[in-house]
Amino acid sequence: HEKTTLTLKGEICVESNPLPVTSEESLLEFFQTPSFRNLLVSGGGERPVETLQITKHLLEDWKLRCDSLGACPPDENDLILSVVSRGIQFPGLSVQSVAAVGVKYVEKSTAEQHKSSDRADADSGDSPRYEFVLLSTQEEASGLAPMVWVYNKLTGADQKSSNSDAQSLSVVNYHVSDSKVIFRTEAFLTIGITFPKVLLRILPGDKSAIEERGAKSIKKTLQKDLAHSMMAYEKAYLDRI
Length: 241
Description:
Blueprint: E1 3-15, E2 19-20, H1 24-32, H2 34-39, E3 49-52, H3 56-69, E4 79-90, E5 93-106, H4 108-113, H5 118-121, E6 129-143, H6 145-155, E7 164-177, E8 180-196, H7 207-240
Antiparallel strand pairs: 1-8, 2-8, 3-4, 4-5, 5-6, 6-7, 7-8
């Protein structure tokens, strides 16, 4: 069967309000604290986060994904989190997922030496940063029965092998100016779904229209999730100073 691929992608940037800086040391300590870092990937602490054991296979897969995304390669000192993601809402369909996310803390000096992708380096100034790389997802669709059936057929969710591949990089850093700090998250997500071209007939619309609608759904979900996470992160920072 001739194959075709639907590509759904979204890119978003979210910033905190300008916040007071008491000292560079306390700011760095806050940024490096794992519990505060986890607010950024859990919808502001609303969803569970667990640490996964790093295997050789996961580490190699992480390195390959970093190559294609232009992110810093990981080592044994980095960690992988299991995160329940906010569901992406499509017309008549909601897709929930549990994601394995690689977390790399890039030191200030390393950030300057390692000029990775524009996405990872955009406006990072001289601050350290976190790079969150999506490694794998387990998805479950719910909603109108016909839409769930179509989704499962397209993605291979009803089979052992998946037809979908997601790539995502989120970069978090901060910028200090005039004794104020602004935290910033840039996130990129693309989902490619490959399936027999004949199945295009069962889709509600042509390929480009579906990709456009899918991109809007992804962007809307990212915006909502990142804004919520940043609000919680900002509150945690203000509570601490």
